[in-house]
Amino acid sequence: MAGAVFAEEHRVLYYEADITGKLTTANILNLAILASGDQSETLGVGNAEIHAQNIGWVILQYNIDITRRPSVGEQIVIKTQADHYNPYFAVRNFWLETSQGEKLVDIRAIFTMIDMEARKMVRIPQVMMEAYQADKVKKIERIPNPMQLAETELPEVMHNFYHVRFFDIDHNHHVNNAHYFTWMQDPLGAEFLTQNEVVNINIKYESEIRYGSEINSYYKILPAVDGIVTTLHQIRVDNELMTEAEMKWRAVTD
Fold this sequence. Notes:
Elements: E1 6-11, H1 25-43, H2 47-51, E2 55-66, E3 75-85, E4 90-98, E5 103-115, E6 121-122, H3 126-132, E7 135-136, E8 158-163, H4 177-185, H5 190-195, E9 196-205, E10 214-221, E11 228-237, E12 240-251
């Protein structure tokens, strides 16, 4: 048994899509987090309430399965549910569905809570998780780590440079998690991104990236296996690993 499911409708807007007319992976994440934020507000544990206690949520890892990205103008339903938690970690589920109930995207996320000033992990207040009706457990269900680029490979693999701008920073005072998807996928190039459709993303956040940072986005495209291409990604600042991801893609057939 897990927490109550929260749902809200959304029409995909033109500025949420890429050149293919489909919702970007970054905006899939933005909509998911919007829904969880709206649920928190309805339960009285939204950002205003938790920030008043000098604490905030931080996402550690996502696993995202994509059956189909919705298109501009399509009416979708975003659902979310606080699943289970222990004193330091919480697991939340998200789904994007059509109005008819066809599942489009399935997301599992691991969160922790930090002191907003010290930027260090703190215990999650139990009263907060009780508001979500999530299950308390001793050990959370971990998401497997993404396949990793070896550090010895970095001089040989492809990479792009990006500068962290003021508008990349969110209300938690660090880079909006959705921006990492753009930094990781953009270097793959227009030809790859229009000829392939992402079907799974496993992304793990290691350290926070701050305003003004210069980042290196490394990537490697592995040979296709059974029609699925895997790409490996790392975001580094001053050679320190900040985020890594493994993405799986299938060729566009229509």
